[in-house]
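Quick look at the format.
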Amino acid sequence: MLYHRQRQLLLMLDSLGGAASCLDFQNLLLLWSHEHKTPPYDFIPHRLGGFSFTTYADKKSLIQKEALEDREDCWIITNGGRSLISGSTSHSVRDSAEDFVVRHRDLSGEV
């Protein structure tokens, strides 16, 4: 079973092509949270941008469910993760994640 925010997280990662650096993905999740009336994640200030303990708790949980690869340097969705979001996700939720990625995909934490 996935939380709605975890499903959205996987959809966003899948829309990005399946992988993103930790910094870039954390910043995208911050922007995504700001677009919601009830933000799915809380962030604290960090020297590289916002940081959320909940996103990393979700990452750990999704690694245990074999939906994400166990990598410290990036977020990578697995085939198992794709299958978790393939059949049970409405088109409007998928479209929302894809629309968000299209609008923000060129943002990067790289200087």
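Next, a different chain entirely:
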Amino acid sequence: MVQAIIDIEDNTNRVLNIVKAKFGLKDKSEAINTMAKQYEESILEPELRPEYVEKAKKIMRQKKIHVGSVENLRKRLNL
């Protein structure tokens, strides 16, 4: 475990208190950990998540469609 002394703004302190109360946490350290975990799950690049890797593998196994040129693609899409 890493310990740190940090300076936070008043608004950030309020947000930490809200997170702490909402999740029934015992201190702001747990609130920061909870926020970091939620950030990781929703914001970080999707290739880090296992479900994204599985989805990409499934797409890669699909039959490929040869289009040729941009003009042929436009014809296929009726553009």
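The chain has a mean pLDDT of 89.

See the schema section for token definitions.
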